[in-house]
Every structure is written in structure tokens, then in C-alpha cells.
Amino acid sequence: MRFRFKPPKMERIKQQVDTIVRFLQPNLPFVNCHMVDYLTEQHWKRFVPVAMQCELRTVSDYLQAKDIFWGQFEPSFDGEERNGGCFPAVREFIKNTRQFRLGGAEARGTALTLDEFMDALSDCRRETRLKMTELMNVKKCHEVEVAAAVVASLCNGMAATQPDTSLEDILVIDAGDGKGYLSSRIALEHGIKVLGVDCNEENTSNAEKRRERLKTKIPKAVQKSNLEEDEHFTNLLQQGSLDTLYRTATQLIDFNTNLIKLAQEYFPGGHHSTFCLCGLHTCGNLGPNCLRLFHENPTIKGICNVGCCYHLMQEQFVVDEFYNPTKVSDNPGYGFPMSKYLQGKSFHLGRNARNLAAESIERACTNRENPSDKLGYRALLQVVLLECGEKKSHQVGRLKCDGFVDYVRRSVRRLGLEQRVTITDDSLQELEERFSAELEQLKVFYLIRQQFAPVVETLILLDRLLYLRECGHDRSFLVQLFEPVVSPRCYALIALK
Ligand SMILES: C[S@@+](CC[C@H](N)C(=O)[O-])C[C@H]1O[C@@H](n2cnc3c(N)ncnc32)[C@H](O)[C@@H]1O
User: Fold this and answer.
1) Quick one: DSSP state of residue 123?
2) For the segment 59-113, what is each residue's pLDDT rounded down to a tens digit?
3) Which residue from 24, 52, 228, 495 has the fewest beta carbons nearer than 10 Å?
């Protein structure tokens, strides 16, 4: 297959990694701080750049600042800045942090757009033609339509380059298949065999149930899409062959899993010679382990992997505060750093930084999402706990509540501290009143910190790309598959051998 795109030079990826590390390193204490300690440890004074502190002093300033953050993706943002808009330090901070994310000035040219990637695949390109939105929400529908076409295009490309190989000889393995949204679509629309693998038995069972329901929806979808004359769909409808194309397995995938043996077990007599490993929102270490399996298996010729839940991965150079060794067996191995280059620097991010990397600024800004009141309630509860002499750090977790007083009562009950925290409702209300400005300030603080989210994610993705390049896979790419507002984890690592 001719691939009409020159991947960025390895030196350039390393330079970008260096630049981001230099930017992130001094900000890591900020990125990793706990919102719980916001009031008791004076986060605003400790972490917010002085120029911004000087600009933002009143509740009215905080409200206006939130508007600036939310408007950062609007075309008027840069114009207002040039015209001397208010709060220049806030605008400068936003502009500066945005340079260090994919597509920003300091990380430009590394990620391809979907169009660039599909154009580069030239004649191997496959499109989504089937109009079939059933049994999926809007987000999943968007992801599936794009990712299925990309995976099918890769398989097409692989078939074109391997001697004596047709699409029939290729088998896709979908790691972390879930309910089989992507895998069933690859099989159904593109006629490629897929094995969906998930460690959760219930998910496998649901994927199978969904496959049965899907079959009943095919005729209408084919008709709606004017594909009745298409040979593949005619055969599919006549033979009802979705079961032979899409199968499921329950198996935990780690860096040692023999996926090829598993595929042979589920597709006996298939004689598949070439495999494509895909994964949509492979949480925690599953994403990194898929990249390792791609590298180590000579017959896995292509990979398309979108990660998620970075907080669930284990880092090599830091032990998480909430580290739970029993959980590690779910997903063994280190997920970060993957590249020898970053390993050589013993670089670590930290749990809160990885948590942050999974947040979506684009979505938050488009929806003008106000950070939850509960963040402030928890920070204020910390004030109460310290006043009551509670030194231990407590994890309250998610809870439903109706205002601050209710929040405190429920949390105290959950923590079993009723005997120690005896503060009255009136005193709690007085406390909330007294801290009302700080609670509004906390929301701005949250948005300031959230600016680092795409920067941390960029570093995680560049590290994975660099790993593939270090392993000698020159045709490795980062591609923006999805619209970030619809699907925040929108970048895929794609590689071909
Ligand atoms: C975020 S969900 C994505 C599901 C599906 N790909 C989708 O996009 O709808 C991640 C899935 O990966 C599965 N999973 C996580 N770690 C795994 C592992 N190590 N091996 C196999 N499956 C895993 C989970 O059970 C879950 O179904």
C-alpha cells in the first residue's frame, strides 16, 4: 500500500516531549493538588500565577473570568485579546497553555486530522455508508461510524500489501470490546471478521444479546441507506451471517496474552494470517498493553487504539496516593511512561494529573459547565473537619445532597464521625456565607487547573507514539478521529507494519 504521508521525525517528537515536560514539571504540584484542601491549604495563593491573582479579586471578577475560559474556543477569543480585552493575564495564561496541546504551537504537525489520514490511505480508503443509529447513543454512533471505517481502511491497506492476502484472511481483534458497538459495525458494514475480547463476562453477554437485536435492524438500515443492490449487504441479508463474522470472548488482556491463539480458538479453521488490533476507549493499562502486543506479535500488522481513563494506569516512577495493589491484577504492567526516552528521564505525572487528563475542556466550554458546587462543599467540609480536630484525610466519595448543610450531614454520617462533628446547622450556614466569595473563586481555580488537562493528555499520547517509533514502527501516527465535544478522548494511535 502506498501511504501518502510522511510521519514526523522522531527527533521532532522528542523535542515536543521535552518542551511539554519543561512546561509541566514546575506546574505538577498545581496539577496534582487536591481540591479538598483548596481552602485549608490556600491553593489560590500557592498555585495561581500572581498576575492572575492581581486581576481577579472580587466575585464579579470571578464570574467574568469563567466567561473568558468558556469562550476560549470561540473565534472572537483571539480578536478580543488583540483589542485589549479585560483580564489580559487570564487570556495570556489560556493562550500559553494551549500552545502545549496537540495542534498548539509547541506540538504542531504531529497529529493528523482524520481527512489527512484517510487521504493518505488513498485507494485503500473505506467509507461509512450504512445509516444505522439504532442501539447506540449519539456519542457512540459518531465514534463507531468513524472508527469502523478507519479500521476497515487499515485492513484493506494491509490486505493490499501482504502477498497472497485478501480481506478474508484478516481478522480484527477488538480489545475491550464492551457491548460490541465498534466490532459489530466493522463486521456488519465491512464484512471483516472480528473477535471482540472483554474481561467482563457481563459485557460479553450483553454484546451477544445486542448482536441478536442488531440482526433485526439490518434490513431497514440497508433499505434506508439505499444499499439493497450492494453485493455484501445482499449476501448478509440472505445468509444472516453476522454470527460468523462477529464473535466474542471473555478474557483479560495483558502484555502476555496470546491473542492469536484466542482468535484461532474462536474462529477455528479460519487460517487467518494477518491481524488488526483495535480498541475504542481502552481504559488504563489496556491501551499501553495493546501497543506492546502489536509490537511483539509479527502477525498483528495494524493497530488503531483510542485510550481513556488514564487515572487507571500504573506509572513506573510514582506510587499513587490511592494505590491499591489488589486492583493491579486487573490490569498489570506500567502504562506510563512507555518510551525509553521518557523512562530515561524517570518522568512521572501523578494520579491527579492523569485524572485531569481525562477531562474535556472543549465539552466543558461548549456547555459552559460550572464546576460542581460539591467541590466547594468538600473543601468547606475540610475546614469543619480540621476545626473539629480531625487530622486524618477522609475520602467522602460521590454523594447526592441538597445544599451545603445536607452535604455535611450526609458526609459525616458516611464517615462515621457523628460523635466528633457536632457543629450546628446555623453555624454551617454562617460558614457557607462567610466563605461565599472563596467558593466562587474555587470554581475559577478549577477552570485554571483544567487548562492543563489537554497538555497532560498530549504528553501521554506523544509518549505512546514515541514508544512505537522507538520500536521501529515508522508508520505510526496520532490521528484525531472524533469531534472532541462529542467524544472527548478523540485521538487514536494508528500504526502499520
Ligand atoms: C471504556 S470501555 C469501552 C468499551 C467499548 N470499546 C466501547 O467503546 O464502547 C472499556 C472496556 O474494556 C474492558 N477492559 C478493561 N480492561 C481490560 C483488559 N485488561 N482486558 C480486557 N478487557 C478490558 C472493560 O471491561 C470495558 O468493557
Assistant:
1) G
2) 999 999 999 999 999 988 876 655 566 899 999 999 999 999 998 999 998 999 9
3) 228
pLDDT in tens, 452-469: 999 999 999 999 999 999
Distance from C-alpha of 283 to C-alpha of 310, rounded to nearest angstrom: 7
Q: What string of DSSP letters covers 459-483?
A: HHHHHHHHHHHHTT--SEEEEE-S-
Q: Contact 80/70 with Cβ under 8 angstroms?
A: no
Q: For the chain, what is the largest distance between any 2 Cα atoms, rounded to a whole number of angstroms?
A: 80
Return the C-alpha cell found at 443.
Answer: 470554581
Say how many CA atoms lie within 13 Å of 425 toward its Cβ. Answer: 6
Residue 352 CB burial class (10 angstroms; 0-12, 13-18, ≥19): buried
Q: How far is the CA of 339 from the centre of ligand 1 (A)?
A: 23
pTM: 0.95
Helix axes 286-296, 453-470, angle to 10 degrees: 20
SS (HEC) of 81-95: HHCCCCCHHHHHHHH
The C-alpha cell 501518502 sits at: 4
pLDDT per residue over 109-152, tens digit each?
A: 899 999 999 998 888 899 999 988 888 999 999 999 999 999 99
Which amino acid would we find at residue 315? E
Q: Which is the closest atom of ligand 1 to the Cα of 203?
A: 27
Task: Name the 3-class secondary structure at 198.
Answer: strand
C-beta of residue 494 within 8 angstroms of C-beta of residue 147:
no
Give dist(CA 130, CA 226) in Å, integer.
9
Identify whether the C-beta of residue 417 lies closer than 8 Å to the C-beta of residue 390: yes
Q: Which helix (DSSP H) or strand (DSSP E) does residue 249 occupy?
A: strand 246-250
Instruction: Please list every protein residue whose CB sits less than 6 Å from any atom of ligand 1.
Output: 176-178, 181-182, 197-200, 203, 252-253, 280-281, 283, 286, 308, 331
The SS3 call for residue 456 is: helix
Q: What's the CA gap between 95 and 93, in Å, rounded?
A: 5
Average pLDDT over residues 22-36: 97
Grid cell listed for 432: 457557607
- Residue 22 CA, ligand 1 centroid: distance in Å: 33
Query: Angle at which helices 373-387 and 425-434 pack, to 10 degrees?
Result: 120
